[in-house]
User: What shape does this take?
Amino acid sequence: MPLVDDPMDESTPWLIDELKHRFQSTDSGLILDMTHQEPIWCLTVSGFESWFAEVESCLDQTLGRRLAHAAAESEEWHRNQSPALPKSWLGQQKKRISTINSDWKLRGQGQLGVLESENQSSTVIVANRTFTALAAGMGNAAWESIQERRFRFQWADRGVGETIVEMTIDPREIPAPEKSIPSWEDQAGLICDDDRLFHRARHEIDGLWTVEGNRTMMLSRDCILRFENLATSYLSSNVRSTDSRTTWAGVESHEQVVLWDAMAEAARRQFLASGELVLIASPEHWIDVANRHLSFLGLGRVSNAIVVDDNGGVELSLPSTLHPAIVTGRLLGCWERAEGRGAKAKWSTSQDGHTIVLESRREIA
Assistant: This one.
């Protein structure tokens, strides 16, 4: 008989065990960082790059600095929720950098190194970085934690996968960031052993791991919410499209609506560009589709699906979401892939979670 080789499993067991210990799945479709119980988006770096680029395109704005400052605030908050950095008479800086790099290793966010450190200024490098604006903000916040001082920062890329962060002392008294609070209701889920993207992780080098050849990272909802808060203050002059695909019940801020529209549209475009196949023959199939395209990444889970018309319209119930705009956008992409025509969505939230209605964008005669 001919011999048939089984597909080679290239995952790294010790890394997967460490990831599973820290990042745990819930039956509501989320991934929780057990350091501080914060929901996490597990996604490929290329996926984040394309999504963020689409957000900027939709808004016709450059948002890298907003993202960098959001990452800095989020990283500082993360560090404040984590065990204190080591204190030592000898080698304290080295030990603190090692502690931060151990954390970043699991999050897939590269590794921190010091190029130059003087009394009034410092230069650090984030090697094997993911997205340069994220690396810059995280690098600044990490160095502030190490030095226990405030710094202003600017950054530049150097070569492939390296971000240089130059910092100068900031004498201002800046309060520590508070926890970011979502503007929607989520149901608390129970820890479970459902499959997630990182369960197939392969270690490449410290701070960099892949899944099936694609570099992958962990991005916290806290960082996304801080980015939203910083970005909306620059959107007052943006005019919302009169033919938007999305409706956000209860969201009254013009700037927030504009940003959510862009985040959803970016997620829709990103999904369609991925070429993923979606087959829907009955409403119940939406549960499996959401498990694959939402829960697998920690974005949420569809618990129920109800037909609302004869043209593919469906009402989806979700107990939790990482972010409503990102989830709505991906579900729009799923609907359009399955039905072969444009879709629109209406999102609402209550104490029971989220409801998303997906329908044909145009009336069908």
